[in-house]
Specification:
This protein is α/β, with parallel strands linked by helices and about 120 residues long. The protein is built from three helices and three strands. It has a three-stranded parallel β-sheet with strand order 1-2-3, sandwiched between helices. The longest helix has 13 residues. It is globular.
């Protein structure tokens, strides 16, 4: 069984599991790490992805979770998900208010056709 080595959030796991049947795209903002108290059985089983979707990973050069974000990018690409990863200079692990428009534009670009 292959599991993802980072926990994005429960909502992201749900979005990835159901894929484009329910969600058009997701944004992983500064990632997460399985070392934060999650057990392997609580992580997403990539074999359960029903349909691939667009994933936008946003992190910073000084983010403690940069390596787990990079690892997640490779893993998702290996199961046919399209991943865009942006690494911002001089940014740590925090919420980037100035990136909200970019996130919204990414999700809007990949809107489900029946939902437009």
């Amino acid at each position: 069984m292959l599991v993802i080595p980072m926990v994005v959030l429960f909502s992201s796991n749900v979005a990835i599991h159901y894929g484009e049947h329910v969600f058009s795209a997701i944004c992983n903002h500064c990632g997460g790490n399985r070392g934060l108290g999650y057990k392997d059985e609580e992580l997403l089983n990539l074999n359960m992805i029903k349909k691939s979707l667009q994933i936008y990973i946003l992190t910073g050069m000084r983010d403690n979770y940069l390596q787990s974000c990079a690892k997640a990018k490779k893993i998702f690409e290996n199961v046919a998900c399209s991943v865009t990863m942006e690494i911002m200079n001089n940014r740590g692990h925090r919420y980037y208010v100035d990136k909200e428009t970019d996130i919204w534009n990414f999700v809007s670009l990949h809107q489900i056709k029946d939902d437009q």
